[in-house]
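Researcher: Structure for this, please.
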Amino acid sequence: KRNPTAISKTALDSLDAKLSVIDAAWLRDDSFVVSDGDATRSNPTHVYTQLLQRLHHGLAPGHPRRRQSPLVNAGYAARMTVMTYILERWINGVVGSWSEYTVKPSAERGSNMVLDDFRRINVVVIGCGLDALGIWSKDLLQRSLSAFISTGGENGHESFSSPHINVYEFDAWDNCVLKEKSLLRSGLINLSSIVDKETLKTDDEIDIQNSYQIHVRGLLNLDGSGSTNVESDYTLVSTDLRQVDRSLDEMKQHKSILSHVGLKAGLDPSQPTIILSELVLAHLGYEAANAVMNSISNDMISGNTLSTFVCLEPMFPTGNNNTSRGIASIQESYAIDYSRQFLGKLQTGNSNSTTKTNDDSRHSLWLHPLGSNRHTVRLRLESCGISCFSIATLREYAIHVASTLRKEKNSSSQNGKVKTIGPKFLCAKEPFDEHAALSLNLDCYCVASVFHPLSAIRGQNIAGNNELQNWMNDICPWPIESAIGRTFRIKPISTSAEDAQVSDLYKKLYVHLYDEYPAIKKLVKSALKGDFLVDQTSIKSSGDETVSVIRDRFVKEGGDFWVATTDNSPSSNDTIERSHTFVVGCIGVKRRGIKNEYCDEDDRQKLTEFEIHRFAVDENHRGTGIGKKLIEVAETSIIAGLSRINRATTLYAVTPLCLTAARKLYESCGYCDNELDSFSAGALRMKVYSKSIGEGSTWRTCGRLT
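Model: Predicted structure, C-alpha cell format:
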C-alpha cells in the first residue's frame, strides 16, 4: 500500500471534511418533524450525504472518520449547501422548462429547437475527486420527473418519453483510480458490457501522449432507481487538465484538451448541460485554467440556452500583494494570511508525490485564485470569452440558499409537499463562537455562474416558458453581467493615481516568469526604480491627486505615455482602489539617438527615431485588442507630430524572446524582426522590431535605409 499522492490526498481530505460536516449535523434540522416520517426520501440533500458515506465505505471499509474543527465544518457546510442547491435547482428548472413546453397542445407551443430535441441532461463535474455530486444528480432527475408525472403531465403529449441523465466526471489519474475502486466496492455502478475502459486512451489529433483514459463507463445503481432503457449513464475519465491545446494560432485564445476529451467521451453539448467545478481551477495554473474556461464557454455550454457553468474558487490576493491604498482592510489582511496557510497545507507531504500523470509539484501544489476581488474575477471571465455571468461571494450565496430553503420549506405544506427543512438548517449543532472568522473565511471564495448569452435577456421566455426565468432568478438573484458593449479608452496618463496603478500593473505582470527568467525580474525592478518610480506614500497619505510624474519623465525625453482605462466600476463590496477608471494597459515612447551609417549628417538632423518602452496589458484583458490599440495610438501621435515638418521616422520595440505573445503582436502590427540587431541582456535574449511610419516612410524597409 503506497502513500497517497499530493493530488489524491487533497481528494481524501475533502471527503473526510464533508463527512465531518455530516457527523456534526450541520445539514440537518433536528427541531423539525417530517410529516411523513421518511426523511431519507423526502429530503434530497439527505440522499447526497448517504452517497458520500457509501463512497467512503467503498474506499476504506471501517476506516475511522476524522472530525474537523467547528470552523472547518462550517466552511465545508456552506460549500456543500451551495453546490447541492445549484445542481438541484438547475435540474428542476430544466425539467420544468421541458414539462411546461411538453404539456401544451402542439398548436400552442409552436417550435422550439432547444426542447423539441430534448433527450438527456448532461451533468459534468470537473475535478470530481471523491464527491457525490454527479452521482446524486440521477436521484434529483428522478425526483423532478416523478413530481411532473404525479401531476399527470405525461398525458399531455402523445409521444411522452422521459429524458435521462448522463454524468461525466473528469479528474487526474490518481483520483480516478480511487473513485473507480470506491464505485465498484460500494455497488454504485454496474459496468457497461459494450465499452472497454481501455478503448479510448490516446488520440493523434492532439499531440499529447496519454491525453485521457476512460476508467469507468456504466449504469449508476442508486438502490434500484436506475433506468433500464440506457446502457450507461455514467463516465469517469482521467485527463491532465493542465494540458493546453496549442493547435490554434498563438494570437488566439488557447483551449483546454477538455473540449476534445469531452467529445470523445460522448458528451453532446447540444443537450442541456451543467458544468460544476469546486476548487479545481485554482490548482491548474493561470494559463491552463483560462484554457479550461475558454473551452467551456465556447464549446461545452454554447450549444443550448439551458446550459450553465458554475465554479466555486478562491478569491484572495496572492504572494506579497499589497493593496493600492497601502493599508489593508481586515478582510484583505485575513485573505492574505489565509492564502498563505492554504498554500502551506497544499505543499505538506510533497515529498511523497508520485503519479502516473507526471505530476509537476510546482504547478499542482501552487494556488492560483480566480481573482483578488470581484472586479479582477470579472475581468478574467471576460478575457476567457465569457460574456454573461454573475459573481457572488460564498458568504452571500450561503445566506441566500439558507434563507430560501428555510422560507420555502416552511411554507411548502400549503402546496401539499412534505416539509423537510426548518429554521435551524445550516446552523451549528456543535459549540461554535467563530462567527467573525467564518464570515471572513467565506468571503475568501467566490461563486461564478456562467450562462448562455441568450439566457441573460431577462423578462423574455427564451425556452418558450416561464420556468427558465424562474430558475435563473432562483439560482442567481444577483444581476447577470454582460461584457457585450464594454469599451476601453486610450489617453495620455494624467494623474498620480494612474501613476500608482501603472506601477502596480507592471509590478505583478511578469511574476510567473521570475523563477525561469531571473533577468526579467531585474528588468522589472529597474523600471520600478526608474520610469515608474512613484512616491505612493505621499499620494495615499494626502489623498489628493497630482499630475503624473511618469508622463513628465517621458515628455522630457521627447516622447509621451498613454494608458488604457475602463470605466467599469467595481461594486461597493470590492476591496480595491475606489476610482472612476481602472488602468488595464500602458505604453510609452521615447526619442532615441540616430546611429545609421547610411545617413550623412544632414539626414541625421532630419531623421528622428523613437522606441516603445514599458508596454504592458493586464493579463485579464489580453486578447481584447487593447495592446494593438495602444500601439496604434502611439504611432498616430508620433505621425501627427512629424506631419508638420514632413518627416518620416522609425519606431523600434525591444522585447524578450520568451514573450511570444508580445512578439506575435508586434508582427501583426507590421513590425519587422531585425534579426541582426538582436542582443543578449545577461542570460536573456532580446528581440528588436522596427516599423517605418510618417511621410516618406515607403522608401524604408524594416527601419533601415535602402
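Researcher: Any notable elements?
Model: The radius of gyration is 29 Å. The mean pLDDT is 75.
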